[in-house]
């Protein structure tokens, strides 16, 4: 679902780059999140880890909110 939404928002000539960026960023955060959460849990406590995860979800939802709506490809200014 997110892949289809992302492809709808991205320009047509940047589809491959957009997919690559999505999976690259996803892999990066999936690799570091367990270590960060473990560090927070050891230093502050388990409840702080859940707050950290809640903040990351909130930040992701905020980023989705500020992304502009998909434009109609027929009126994007390109001549076909």
Describe this structure in words.
This protein is mostly helical and 80 residues long. Helix content is 72%, strand content 0%. 0% of the residues are buried. The model has no long low-confidence stretch (mean pLDDT 83).
Topology:
Layout: H1 2-9, H2 15-43, H3 46-66
List keywords for this structure.
80 residues, mainly alpha, elongated
Mean pLDDT: 83
- Which structural class should the secondary elements be placed in? mainly alpha
Described by strand count, sense and barrel closure, the largest sheet is: none
Question: How large is the share of residues in beta strands?
Answer: under 5%
Fraction of residues in helices?
over 70%
List SSEs in N-to-C order. Answer: HHH
Number of strands: 0
Q: For this entry, what is the oligomeric state of its chains? A: single chain
Shape: elongated
Q: How far apart are the termini?
A: 28 Å
> Mind telling me the C-alpha Rg?
17 Å
List the uncertain runs: none
Q: How many separate helices? A: 3
Please sum up the structure shown.
The chain has 3 helices and no strands. The chain has 80 residues and is mostly helical.
